[in-house]
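To assess whether the prediction recovers the assembly geometry, we first specified each molecular entity separately, as shown.
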Amino acid sequence: MRRKIMIKAGIIGATGYAGSELVRLLLGHSQVEIKWLGSRSYVGQKYAGIYQNFFQLIDEKCLDDNMEELARQVDVIFTATPQGLCASLINEGILSQAKVVDLSADFRIKDVKKYEQWYGMEHKSPQFVEEAVYGLCEINREEIKKARLIANPGCYPTCSTLSIYPLLKEGLIDPNTIIIDAKSGTSGAGRGAKVDNLYCEVNENIKAYGVASHRHTPEIEDQLGYACGKEVLINFTPHLVPMNRGILVTAYASLTKDVTYEEVRAAYDKYYEKEQFVRVMDKDICPQTKWVEGSNYVDVNFKIDPRTKRVIMMGALDNVVKGAAGQAVQNMNLMFGLNEAEGLYQIPMCP
Amino acid sequence: MRRKIMIKAGIIGATGYAGSELVRLLLGHSQVEIKWLGSRSYVGQKYAGIYQNFFQLIDEKCLDDNMEELARQVDVIFTATPQGLCASLINEGILSQAKVVDLSADFRIKDVKKYEQWYGMEHKSPQFVEEAVYGLCEINREEIKKARLIANPGCYPTCSTLSIYPLLKEGLIDPNTIIIDAKSGTSGAGRGAKVDNLYCEVNENIKAYGVASHRHTPEIEDQLGYACGKEVLINFTPHLVPMNRGILVTAYASLTKDVTYEEVRAAYDKYYEKEQFVRVMDKDICPQTKWVEGSNYVDVNFKIDPRTKRVIMMGALDNVVKGAAGQAVQNMNLMFGLNEAEGLYQIPMCP
Amino acid sequence: MRRKIMIKAGIIGATGYAGSELVRLLLGHSQVEIKWLGSRSYVGQKYAGIYQNFFQLIDEKCLDDNMEELARQVDVIFTATPQGLCASLINEGILSQAKVVDLSADFRIKDVKKYEQWYGMEHKSPQFVEEAVYGLCEINREEIKKARLIANPGCYPTCSTLSIYPLLKEGLIDPNTIIIDAKSGTSGAGRGAKVDNLYCEVNENIKAYGVASHRHTPEIEDQLGYACGKEVLINFTPHLVPMNRGILVTAYASLTKDVTYEEVRAAYDKYYEKEQFVRVMDKDICPQTKWVEGSNYVDVNFKIDPRTKRVIMMGALDNVVKGAAGQAVQNMNLMFGLNEAEGLYQIPMCP
Amino acid sequence: MRRKIMIKAGIIGATGYAGSELVRLLLGHSQVEIKWLGSRSYVGQKYAGIYQNFFQLIDEKCLDDNMEELARQVDVIFTATPQGLCASLINEGILSQAKVVDLSADFRIKDVKKYEQWYGMEHKSPQFVEEAVYGLCEINREEIKKARLIANPGCYPTCSTLSIYPLLKEGLIDPNTIIIDAKSGTSGAGRGAKVDNLYCEVNENIKAYGVASHRHTPEIEDQLGYACGKEVLINFTPHLVPMNRGILVTAYASLTKDVTYEEVRAAYDKYYEKEQFVRVMDKDICPQTKWVEGSNYVDVNFKIDPRTKRVIMMGALDNVVKGAAGQAVQNMNLMFGLNEAEGLYQIPMCP
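The predicted structure of the complete assembly is given in tokenized form:
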């Protein structure tokens, strides 16, 4: 790997799709050196043998997930691992030596009981839940800067929350009427060898899944609840789309009063005008996942329907970047006092 | 073409995707002989030169759209043409000689003003609107049998209406809360040479379009209104999905009372148990477009969300078959007193 | 399943892609009743629970692969199983009770040593290799009619052999110069849960595989050798294409003399003019896999390059139909004296 | 656009796929400022309104193709235009003011007659053909540094030539036996609104096109001819693959003598060991287009077939980057004495 200057980084779960995207982004980051490519399944194998896109860019072999040792060697640890793993490995010793950005759901939900209910497992480190900062940079920027442990948001929650947040915060929509219909590319399903994710099962097909039961539901509800100051219950329906990358959120809510385009637009601008990674599209332009592919952007927009007095809110992001690895890097930048966009200058790729 | 026995059929718009699917289905229909392949753009060219899948199956050349002449030669005319064309060509003389199944929207909406508003064009044959029967076979079967002119339903309205109809008819859902989020394969956009439908623009991409303004909205609202006996306003958002065929509808509505799975299921069964083309899936199975591909089936199912007191209704069909050509054939079968399923025995193709 | 009249059929390996396509075709076959859906991995599970496209069409559960019992119950057994399984199960008792169509490679290669070398396994039933008939219907029709055991050809060999056969048989090309560059959809890789076949690994990607070592090489060489009466060595390179179905073969060979288009065309016509499943395209039309999708057709054509004195031969088929299940049904039809096309009337589906 | 320091660049044909990729790459180039986005079809329209991926990154509107004016304003002009346009606009005045990188074929073929024959048009600037340097950087680096006018190579010729060059140059293969079977993503067909390039026509399909007649044939033959010092005639067959980006070349040739893996490998290493954009893969690894997507890399490898005494040479690149815009930037870097890789650090994106 090319020499970098300041921050030593380790990744656990480096051979998953989020992990490999972290590698892509960190390799191009001017202030980071990757020191540890952890992958339980591929220990001892050359990393570039698994992801040949890194051929001649990375010579290192995969290491294990010894987080204690890792904490001694690096400044920041990214855990891009299955639910429960980070919580089972983390401890005060680790956190006192290295900052941790957890890309799993372990520390996203403040109510441990709720977590255990939706995820069907015991939480192994409830003592760190309170401390962990939910790493939605546009909303929790200041807390992130001071954090030791970041709960990197889920892909759906990032896209959903950023699409809805301004209107909810400004009281323009009724929190009890929110319905989120989301569509995701297949990389969101991970790199596990399952029949359901085979090319022939996904291609030329679309389906809903996890209807009224998807684990990202409480995470979204929590974030929306913080925005409006009361408990929110939503319908959230994810769909699997035959494409590699991208999430599109189409959200519906009833308006609390008659509003003009300009009023709603002003709400979005209030929160996002200075955000470099949130783009509020021009009037009548619907976000498309292709327009953010490979980049850390979230594109949002809305449409008022005067007939039904509802507003349709739309958001698009690359689930592997802003929905996972990109946001993790953005969090790291904030935690280390770097330019928030460092390593995230990728321009969306069309076609 | 192979010899058929009874019904002579003509198609105007035979080189569009719906038209060519009509050809595929009618070629396999035991009682039909195709006598006229009309295509304004390809007059005089061999039909199989445009659709080489019919090579050695069809030797005929494309003819024009002379509907008067066509009416003299055939028993049934299918118009798979752009909006407005059928209305501009049809007259009493034609209807007295041949039955007409119009796959465009010209005769779907009973309120001519509403049609003209949403479609932005003057209606050229308002005098036939009242007579035309909306060809949603599962709902209007008896009227269809006696009709001279069928308004073949749109792809989205077919899928949406059949997914929602039983619950609305049985009063289980509140008509003012219906939100329909639909996803369609690209064949629904037609075969016109537009940049937006190029492979590189559609592939690896998903977007909403026609938000709060799509022309199928009033058609769906009309049908749902008939079901519940009062005016219905909905939100309908179509999305373009990178696949050739298939529509998936995910619809949301508030329940009017506490219901069990069995009660809702009973409502679906009441209307569809005897329907051969509507399959109510087993509990917790979400419809997938792949499972109906190439066939005339509509797969529907639902999920109750006790947290939000809403029900999520799902439906999947092949937009070119049940959403267009297949339903047209089903209508023809009914009009001519044939077995409703004749020519429609195709088993869905996986993968 | 609907009632059928004459032939009782059993399938071992019914839950693979070839197996499920057999089910689709046999369900539509007027003379066949499916009596046994064998699937080692899914014994006791409802077949339509695995392939929901058959929902309400098949109520049966999966059975095991007890071929002895199966032979007592059915007239024909299809083995759509991994290499080696059919050879390990078959015996004289079975063959004396039921005809067998083996879709694996076990009986395709007459030289058992060669088989064992390329497939890396011991042949468990070498005594039946001689008897087995290579089921390439267009070439071995008469032998097939009398056979008890059919070695159903591989997908690549079917497409390759039929594309090249006439020119080789007529001595128009030099057998030592044949190069076959083949491209296949992903269903050819089967339904096994492997990382390499995940959607995200196949989509937006193309690669060669098995270069100079693919197991279909000796099978193709054997068939081409029979055509020209001497040993043939070829280069065969398969590629994985991001689509579900379809094989395209582009084959190159040096012409043995100056020839006109008409002379080469006459060679194709000589062998295929009366074949209902081989379509020799019109001049300058290149076969496309889409034009045969879902059907039993093979489309072939050629182009002479006077500059290099080579001919480029092209062929396209649906690997799951003519490349597997469709050809198996065609073989069954021949073995039982039925119309060769029965159950195979599917018209290719576009788009 | 962000401020850049040194080189002012203009693009004619900025709204095609190659043009927009030039924009993407030049926006990330530390030494370039884009001053002119020329697009005949979109004059006066906001560039980011056509390519919304550049929303908030580019505010400029499209300009015309006034090359005289452009030459006065910029240091380098990229012409990503249809064949013939650059030749019809260029003159000594322009070349004396600005360097020109022509991405069309106008100046690639030294024999004007041959150009006119294959391209079916009169050459409007034959006087500059001799001067133009063929911009295959790895082979003509020194000439490129001194050039005023670069003929940027075609996508297929770049991939084909780089895959074959070392073996031909070293005399290891017989130039009379070269067969190139190439597969391309659909962006290579451009952004023109043609039925053949519609999503539904390309998806789930593969076909050969331009068989024995594709315009890149003489370009490849010229370059291979220079490598071996005599006229070369090849077979070149391109195929259209359902993916956006990527070209894969599978080339075949007879070996001139018995060689080991190491000998052939040494030939590749001799020419590419120091090349940063050509990666010779490890033994037995077949290049995949996904592994170079979005980057300027060409991945090459080979396999010896001792049975047929042929070698199979494989190459993969991103047709929009190394096959067009990336190589154009690489050429510009060389012409202006910059680091050859500046602006081309993109790491391939998986998945």
